[in-house]
C-alpha cells in the first residue's frame, strides 16, 4: 500500500486488500468469448449461495442505485410503497417519482426500524404492487426485520418485494428464496470489499413475468435483457471485467473462510465495536434488537467535535471513520466492521480512535 494510504472504516467504500487489487490487474479478456463465459460460470454458483437463491444472479456495471432505479422501472405498474427510515431508503421515493411512477412512503423517524404491523396496514389498502425495503439502513445503523417484513408482503400475492442489501450482503445471511423476496440487490464496495462500480442482483420468476408486462423499461437496466444474456452466461453490455476478476478472488476468499465463519466474524467484530461504544460513554443511534451487524451508528451524546476528531485520527493514525450522514451529520458517527477486517485490525482501529478522542469531561 502507498505511504499516504488512509485506511477506511467508513461504511463504504471500504478497504480493498492488495491481493484483491492484484487479482484485478489480470490481463483483459473479451466479453463475448469463452473466457468470459468461464469466468461467469465459475462465480455464479457461489453468488447463488451468497444470495440464498437458485435463481439467476445478474451482474450490472453500475453502482447499486442503478439497480434500485431498475427495480422501479421494471416492476411498478400501480404504485410503489417505499419503506423509508433513513437516507438511502428515503431517497428511493424520490427515485420512483423521477421515474414517473406512483409512489408513497411508509415513513418512520430516522433511527427507527420499519415494523411489520405498519407495513401490513399500508398494504391492506390494496393500492400497491411493489414494496421497496433497505435491509440495513447504512445512514442510521438500523437493520430492519427482514424475515418478518417479507412474511407480511407474502400475504399479498400481487405485491413484489425489492430489497436493498447493499451494506448487509455477505455480512449476514440473506435467504432470498426462503423468504420469498423478489429482487435482492447489492453493490461491490461494501462488505464484498471490492472497489465501487459493480452491482449484483437476483430476480424471482414472478418478478420477471411482471417486468415482461411493463412498457418503457429502457435498455441498460432491462431485466429481460439481463435474463436473455444470462442464458449465454453473458451481460447485456460490456461489463467491468476487472471488478469481476476481483469478485472471483473475493468469492474464493469468502468460501475458503466459510459462510458461517464469515457471518460469525462480522458479528464478533461488531460486538467489539459495541463494547467500545459503551466503554466510552456513548449510546447507539438504533434501538436494541435492530442494530446493524456490519457497521455501528453511534449517537454523539457526549457532544464531541466529530470532524475535528476524524481529522486528528486521519493525521495521526492514517485512518478514518465517518462523521454521520446527511441530516444526522455530527449528531452521529459511524464505524464500519465489514469486509476483510479482523480482530487485530478492529482492535488497532479502536485504539487509534480512542487515542484521538477528546477526554471525558
Ligand atoms: C451505499 C449504499 C447505497 C448506495 O450505493 P451506490 O453504490 O452509491 O449506488 C444504497 N443503499 C445502501 C443501503 C447503501 O449502504
Care to describe what's here?
The chain is an alpha/beta fold and 361 residues long. It has 2 domains: 7-15 and 258-356, Aspartate Aminotransferase, domain 1; 18-255, Type I PLP-dependent aspartate aminotransferase-like (Major domain) (Aspartate Aminotransferase, domain 2). It is 42% helix and 15% strand. The strands form 4 sheets. Strands 2-10-9-8-5-3-4 form a 7-stranded mixed β-sheet, with helices on both faces. It has a 3-stranded antiparallel β-sheet with strand order 11-12-14, covered by helices on one side. Helix 11 runs parallel beside helix 13. The radius of gyration is 20 Å and the shape is globular. The chain binds pyridoxal-5'-phosphate (PLP). Pyridoxal-5'-phosphate (PLP) binds at residues 12, 63-65, 88, 134, 136, 138, 164, 166-167, 187, 190, 196.
Strand order within the widest beta sheet = 2-10-9-8-5-3-4
Number of helices: 13
Bound molecules: pyridoxal-5'-phosphate
State the shape.
globular
The stretches of 5 or more residues where confidence is low (pLDDT under 50) are none
Secondary-structure content class: alpha/beta
Distance between the amino and carboxyl termini: 38 Å
Major beta-sheet overview: 7 strands, mixed
Portion of residues in beta strands equals 5-15%
- Write out the CATH superfamily name of the largest domain: Type I PLP-dependent aspartate aminotransferase-like (Major domain)
Mean pLDDT: 97
Query: What is the CATH T-level topology of the largest domain?
Result: Aspartate Aminotransferase, domain 2
